[in-house]
Each structure stands twice: as structure tokens, then as C-alpha cells.
Predict the 3D structure of the following.
Amino acid sequence: AQTVTQSQPEMSVQEAETVTLSCTYDTSESDYYLFWYKQPPSRQMILVIRQEAYKQQNATENRFSVNFQKAAKSFSLKISDSQLGDAAMYFCAYRTIIQGAQKLVFGQGTRLTINP
Amino acid sequence: KAGVTQTPRYLIKTRGQQVTLSCSPISGHRSVSWYQQTPGQGLQFLFEYFSETQRNKGNFPGRFSGRQFSNSRSEMNVSTLELGDSALYLCASSDMRQGSYEQYFGPGTRLTVT
């Protein structure tokens, strides 16, 4: 079974600085999708960025980028120029498909605090 | 397009009762998935529906069930509620067409069982 591990329960960063959140996963599949979701205090899960495993190029969305290391099964999220609105729980998720049915497997989350 | 909507947003029930939660996906999305979020267990997959068929189910007892209607709206039902069922229940929809596999989440339903 696929598992996702986020080893940093909490992280903090100064506003305008850069922070990296770690995520590792375990799978025997060769083709899959990885995601980072953000959950602010409002509890709404917001998709931040996605990565297809078959793509070698790391995904980027404005200030958010990933470092995808397929062989190491590592998928870290880098947030540049941190803003107060980035404060939230961040979840790493692995999308698995079983006989056409999909599900997301989530890590335990990292709580990110932005210090002004 | 309007996002995923869930009703009700908050619910308080007593042990032994049953509850029905509703989810309306983004227009055009045919896949609806449900997740349970608790402080202890984190985010856990409940089930996925596609074209009115349950395609996948997580490791939850039979008290948890769901269905999907022809307009892709979905409901989940929990019977004989237990204190441990208190959680945030999240619904997510996805397009499932080639290259569109992201799941978009609703605001959730906060269920409290007393």
C-alpha cells in the first residue's frame, strides 16, 4: 500500500523568506500523481501544485515550486517570498488508481507559521 | 464555475442517530470522493463515486455508506453514530478526463457526535 510521510509537524519562517516542506512516499507504481494541498484555518483544502511522475521537470506555480526526486521518492515544496497568507496546514498527497478508481493518500501534514 | 459545495456546514448529533451529508461537485465533474479528517487519524479516504457507481471504498465499517445521483451530486450516510465519528467530512470532485485528475475540495461538514 502507498504511504506518504511528512516528517515536519511544524515549520516557521520569516515573512519574505523561503521555506521548504518535506514529503516522502512509498510506492511500487511507476506512473502516478503527487499533490500539495493547503488547508488554512477556514478548513477549505486548496490545491497548490501537482506533479506527474512521468515528467522530469519540476512543477512551478508562481511562488510555489517542487523538488521531485523520483528515485528517492521525495517530493518537497518550496515557498519563496513567504507571505502571511501562506500560513496554513500543508498536506502532501499521492494519487493512486485501483482498477480505474482513484483515491488520495495524504501525509500527516505540516503546520506552517509565517512570522511578520 | 462554482466550486464544490457541501451541506450542512455544521451538524450536531447524538450517539445512535444517523446522519446524511450532501455534496454538489463542480459542474461537469463526474467523480466524487469523500474523506474523513480527524486530529488523530488525519485525512482518510472513505469512498469514490463515478457515474452513480461506487468504485472504491476505504477501510471504514458498513455504517458508512454513500450514493451518487445522475446529476453527480453525492450523499454520504452514517448510521448508528459513535463518538469517534466526530470529524470534518470533506468531499472532492474531479473531472477524470485525460490530464484532469486534480481533486477539488468543498468546505467540509463538521460533524459533532455527543
Summary: Chain B touches chain A at residues 31, 33, 35, 42-43, 45, 48, 50, 55-56, 58, 88, 90, 92, 94, 96, 101-108, 110 (CB under 8 Å). The CA atoms of residues 35 and 45 of chain B lie 5 Å apart. Chain B has no helices and eleven strands. Chain B has a mean pLDDT of 94.
